[in-house]
Amino acid sequence: MNTEKDFSPLTPNIVRALNDKLYEKRKVAALEIEKLVREFVAQNNSAQIRHVIQILATEFALSQHPHSRKGGLIGLAACSIALGKDSGLYLKELIDPVLTCFNDSDSRLRYYACEALYNIVKVARGAVLPHFNVLFDGLSKLAADPDPNVKSGSELLDRLLKIHVLESVPDINLLDYLPEFLDGLFQILGDSSKEIRRICEVVLGEFLKEIKKNPSSVKFAEMANILVIHCQVSDESKSTYDLIQLTSMTWMREFIQLAGRVVLPYSSGILTAVLPCLSYDDRKKSTKEAASACNHSLMKLVTPEDDVDDEESQTKSSPQSDGSPSKKESDLNDSLNESQESVGFSNISFFTPASSDRPAVTLDLDGIVQVLDRHLHDSSTGMMTRIAVLKWLYHLYIKTPRKMFKHTDSLFPMLLKTLSDESDEVILKDLEVLAEIASSPAGQTDASGSCDNSDSKTELHIPGGVRDGQPVVVGCKVTDLSPSTPSMNSYFYKFMINLLKRFSLERKLLEMRGAFIIRQLCLLLHAENIFHSMADILLKEEDLKFASTMVQTLNTILLTSAELFQLRNQLKDLRTQESCALFCCLYRSWCHNPVATVSLCFLTQNYRHAYDLIQKFGDLEVTVDFLMEVDKLVQLIESPIFTYLRLQLLDVEHNPYLIKALYGLLMLLPQSQAFQLLSHRLSCVPNPELMRTVEDPKAPVKDKRLAQPHIDYSELLQHFDRVQSKHLEVRHQRAGRSEHPDRKL
Length: 745
Hints:
Elements: H1 12-18, H2 23-42, H3 46-61, H4 66-83, H5 91-100, H6 107-124, H7 132-142, H8 148-167, H9 178-188, H10 194-213, H11 220-231, H12 239-259, H13 267-274, H14 285-301, H15 310-316, H16 329-343, H17 365-377, H18 383-399, H19 401-404, H20 408-417, H21 424-439, E1 459-467, E2 470-477, H22 490-505, H23 507-524, H24 527-539, H25 544-560, H26 565-573, H27 577-590, H28 594-603, H29 607-616, H30 624-637, H31 643-648, H32 656-668, H33 673-683, H34 713-739
Antiparallel strand pairs: 1-2
C-alpha cells in the first residue's frame, strides 16, 4: 500500500497502525477511528462518515495485502459501533466489503470478517433485515468452513441474527416471507456439505414449529406447489434427494392436517408425489409412513359437498378468502419452474389450482382421476400404490358419485384389466370399485348419457313355464330382477358382459381366479343378480366350449360356496314365481353342461326331471372329462350341501325318481372309487315295506311339489336336446379340422 497517499481524514498514524501485522496495533487504530467517527456524528457530517467508510472498504478491506484487509475489517466494525443507531443509514457500505472477505483464502481473515460482521449486526439489529438474503448466503458458506474457529464465529453470528436481531423488531413475522425462500431452503438441503444440510434441517424444523403454533398466519396455498415439486425428487444414487423428499413429505403431511380443504385444488399434484412413495421398501420407511399419512388425511378432506355442481356450490356457499389461490400464484409458479431447471429436477409433475379465480375451494376431480388412471396404466406401479389408487376411486365413487360417473367409461376398461392382477388384495379392491359402479344409483341418471348404450339396456327373458295352459314368460330388466333383489344400474349388465368376455379371453384367469372373483362379487352385490345375468349372457354365448366351462365353474360355486347359502335355499323349494323364473333361467344356460344340469335338478329337488336327463346321457358322447364331472357330482352328494337329499332316500315311496336318478349315475360310472361310494349309499336305502307307519298305513301323503307354480319340464328337455345338438355339431367340426388340418372352412 502507498503510505504517502492521502487518506484524510484518517491520520498517518491510524493508517500505519491499520497496516500493521500485530492485532493490538490494529485494535488501537480502530479505537481512534471510532473516536473520529463519533465526532462526525455529533457534527451531523454524513459526507465525512461516508468518506471514511469508503477509504476503509476500498483501500484496506479490499486491498491485496492481507494485513491491510484485516485492518480494514476492524476499522469498519469500529465505524458501526461509533454510528450506533445511525449505522442503518450506511449498512450496505459497511456489509458488502465484509461479505467479500468471507471468500478469502486466509482462514484468519475469514474469522476477522465474521467478527466484524457480528459487531455490525449487533449494533444495527433490525436494520439489517433488508440485507437478510446476502447475510444468509454468507452464513451458509461459513457454516461449513473447514476452520473450527471460523465455524464457531459463524454460529455466534447466526444466533445473533435469530435471537437479538429478529426479536428486536416487534411486528416481524418471517412466516409471511416463507413462500419466497422456502424453495431455496429445500435446494440448500441437497448441498454436498453435510454440515450445511444439518443446519438447513434445523432451520426448516424451526419454521415447521412456528407453522404449527400459528397456522392462521401461514400462506399454505402459496407453498403447496413448492412441496409438491420437492416431494417428487427421488434418486437412489443421491442420498441428499432422500432427505429432501422426506422433509418435504413431512411438511406436506402437516400442511394437509393444518390447512384442511385449502389444499384441495392441489390434490392432483399431491397424489402424484405421494402415491409412488407408498410402495417404498423399508429402506425409505420414514418417507413411506409420511406419504401414507398424507394420503389418508387428503382422502378425508373429500366430502359429499364436493359432488355439488359448481353453479350450485357458488349459490349455496359464501366466498372463502383462504380457499382462493394467491394473486402471486403465477409469479411463484414461474420462479419454481426456473428452480426446477436450475437444480435438474426433470420429469416432475407441476400442478396449478384447477380454478384460481373461484372464491370457494374446489376439488380438482378431473386432475385426480387423471393421476389415478395414469398409475393404474403404469405397469411399474407398486402393489401398495395400486391398492391406494383403487381405494381413492372407491372413496370418490362413494363421496362424489355424480361427478365420478362422468369418468366411468374411461376408467372401466382398466378396472376390468386390473382383475388380472397378481395380488389378491388388489383384485379385492378392484372388485369393490366395480361393484360400487354397478350398484350406485348415480349410474342410472348419468348426466353425460354414457350409460345409455345397447348393452346396458338388454333385458333378461326367462321362460317360466306355463300357467293355466298358457306359456308364462318372466321378462325382467337387470334393474329389477325380482322383488327380492336390490336394483342395479345400467353398468351392472355391462360389467357382467365384459367380465365373462375377459374370462373367455383369459382362460388362466378363469381357472386361477374365476371362482374367487365371482364369490366376492356375490358378497359385494347380490348373488341372485350375478347368477341371473351371467346365465342370460351365457345363453347367447357362441363359444360353446367356454360356455360349458363357465357353467361348470358357476355350478361349483353355487353348490359349495358359503356366500351362496341364501340362493341355494331360494332354489331348493321353488315355491315362488321368482324362484321358478330363476331356476328356468339357470337351467337354460346350465344345459351347456349336462352334469351341471343334473346337479341343478338335484339342488331344486326336480328328481324326475333329473332322471329324464340322465336317460338322455346315453345319446351323448361320454368322455373322460364327462366321467370326471360325474365323479365330482357323486362326491358332492356325500357333502353337507345335499344332506336333505340323502335323508329323502328314507322316503322311498315318494322319491322313486331320486333313487332312479342315482342308480342312473351309478350305471354311468366305471368301477371306480366314486362307483363304490354311490353303490354303498344306495345299498343303505331301506325297504319301503319296513318304512310304512303303523298308525295310518293308508293315509295319503301330500306332495309338497304340488303347491309350486307349474314349470313346463317337457319344454326344458327340448331345450336341453337343442343345446346338446349344438355341442355335438361343434365337436364334429373340430374333429373334421383335426383330421384335415389343411382344409379351409
